[in-house]
Amino acid sequence: MSSDDFDSHLRKLMAWHFGDATGSPFWLGKRATLGFDPVSDVQGATDLLRFPDISSELRSVPAGDLIPQGLADQPFRVYDSGGTTGAPKRIVDSGYRSRLLEWAHGRLVAQGVPATGNWLHLGPSGPHVIGFDVSRYAALGNGIFYTVDLDPRWVKRLLGSGRPEQAEEYIQHLLDQAETILRSQDVAVLSTTPPLLEAICAREELYELVLAKVRGIIWAGTSISAESLRLVEEVFFPGTAVAGIYGNSLMGVAPQRERLAGDEYPCVFEAFPETTRLELVDEQGKEVGYGERGRVRLHLVAEEMFLPNILERDSAVRIAPTSPGGPDGLADVQTFGTIDDVAVIEGVY
Amino acid sequence: MSVVRIDPVTGGRPVPSSDRSTLLGVTGEPLADIGQAPRLLAQAALNELRRNADGVPPGAELLVEAARLFASADLDGESIDDYVNRVTLSTGLTAATVRLAVEDLVKEIVALPATTAAELPVTDFGSGFRTRWVPRGRVFAGVMASNHPVPNATWVQAVYHGYSVLVRPGSRDPFTPRRLVAALLRAGLPADRLAFLPSSREVGEFLLRKADRGIIYGGRQAVETWQGDDSIAVRGPGSTKAFLDADLDDALLDHLVTSASFDGGTRCTNLSAVLTTRPVAEVADRLARRLSTLPVLPADHPDASLLVLDAHRAEQIRRQTAELRTELTDHSARHDAHEPFVRLENGSLLPRPLVLSADRAGHPAVGTELPFPFIVVAPWTEADGTAPLRESLVLNLLTEREDLAERALLEPTVRKVTRGTVLPWTAVPGIPHDDNYTQFLLEPKGVVSGDIDSKAGRHLAST
User: Fold this and answer.
1) In a mutagenesis test of the A interface, which of B10, B33, B40 is the best target, namely the one with the most A β-carbons within 10 Å?
2) Which residue in A has a C-alpha nearest to residue B43's C-alpha?
3) What is the tens place of the pLDDT at every residue in A261-291?
4) Integer Cα distance of A345 and A121 in angstroms
5) Do the Cβ atoms of B18 and A201 come within 8 Å?
6) Percent residues over pLDDT 90 in chain A
């Protein structure tokens, strides 16, 4: 999608989100406090910077107030962010995310992840949207969706309060369950996190099972170092398609794009161009140059959710688009040290 | 000196890691570009070592040859002088200390057969009955610190006894274990017996959890997780103390000053507390005056005797000593012509020797360890008993009192006792540094051969 197309999409959705009959109570309530008219003054992506960062309010606003009135007849679900940076933020979703995931699934398949077959999701479900995401990937290939309950907040609490042995015991409890599934069921794709992949590699029998059965591994949820990724791909799971997804509840998902000759980083992520803009910015909020590290700033402009000008917890290196007008890539994503004075604990998700 | 590229070594080969960090020296200049081993590389190395670990000792000759190569050969393009320069620049130890450490490492390695013999009891019971001491496991992890090169002898000892060994070097001194690994491989140790893994603290802890036996060096916080774990030898801060129950003549003063300042005060066995029946302020003043004569020189100067620090570490220690000064009396300030931290021309900082006094034996600062000549002097009275003498790696008794010597010896947290003007690290093979390390590595197994006296056999058989 070109920037002109995105700008015209944006103008259309400003009229939607700030229309009396269609907008959400949350944004309609904000309109008077903005100090500008979002419908007439917002003409392009750069104008999104005029909006305040409302992400902290997503911790407490009643989720019903986030639903556009124009979609009041649709069923909505609520999802939480992980809670890495304090109390979780809420989002609402009816059908948007499924469209996004269809696009993402296509990109994963393009990188060798089996298009069909069963999936095992060894990661959070419950209020965490990743569980829903992976179930959609499985469904898109007519696969069965197996899952293991993982409560990432409990792991963070254990680690944050100096109980690493209990966190380790919980991880082994998760791996026991994954092993039970893998023993008797066919699993083509495993979706999990880098720390759990490390834990799998430390259990010989489980590792052998994954190596023998699984043909695609999706990792997401925490960062991974370049050397760790090399070891996953070349030493521990050669012959298995490995693809990373950068994502979070607010933004959605940004799968790894195909690796190109000359890529300096093994893993470059791209967001859904129709609705999402990711910018990497310095401390003054100015976009950094290509090859430089910046903090992630997000704009999501979809019919169901409008999340402009949100400073994320992560930093990444800005990578030039692969084609003129295409989206910037993100590489070497890392968690930003502290946000709002809350120490970030990555845990296992 | 050019920046040296260092990578993890597994299977005898360097593994060029994509995760890199730059090691800065005490002057702030980059010294080494270090490939870090993430946990998965540690796992891969562990798998490889375990697959091939058979527990067969490599033989003393190989170790002696490795020690010779370590001290003299060009290894990975590094001469012994390059090595000394690098360690001097990265740790702030004086060049003289590093050269002496090379000699001491060689001595310790060459003495391994003698040490082993001295630390094991009689094994031959006659008539075909004997005990064989064999490794308690196959894989050993050494998590090292950077305060001094000599502790690396402990993982070499595990190699000697037949362990396959993973070494996580101290963050400021990857050079010593890297050079020892290269020397052992050059001397003919099978490549799958060793892994060298520069890595984070977390990876070090992972190795300790996964290995059969291990050793960890570090500060109180780094080692506390492993206290009480029988499979891990814990080497935390040393807290070497002297009990001074005699008038401080020149010989005793010389002895205490050397105990505190030898090797720049960087050994875990350097003296850090004096408990005394004599006037505390007078003892502290005399120690401070003598220590204040140690010269301010860069670490690579041939006459240098004091450690230097990089700016960041100096700031940490400055904060720590500033806090101690608010609670204790500073005796060095009035005797030492220098600032507490002297900035040298090359950008490094030299902490001056520091003598403080406390008003009571039970003061929490008694036993504090710092990596330069640092002594807390405190009063001791009969009512204190042996309590203030506890938690000592070495306790130096300068007293005629046999009763107290005996009670101190029976204290479980006193690890070694020296009497008179004996330096804390004085030992011969068989004298434990902290418990019997050979028996930590080895366990006894009964071996009974044929043609035994059948009556004796029945008599000794256990059920």
Assistant:
1) B40
2) A202
3) 999 999 999 999 999 999 999 999 999 999 9
4) 22
5) no
6) 85
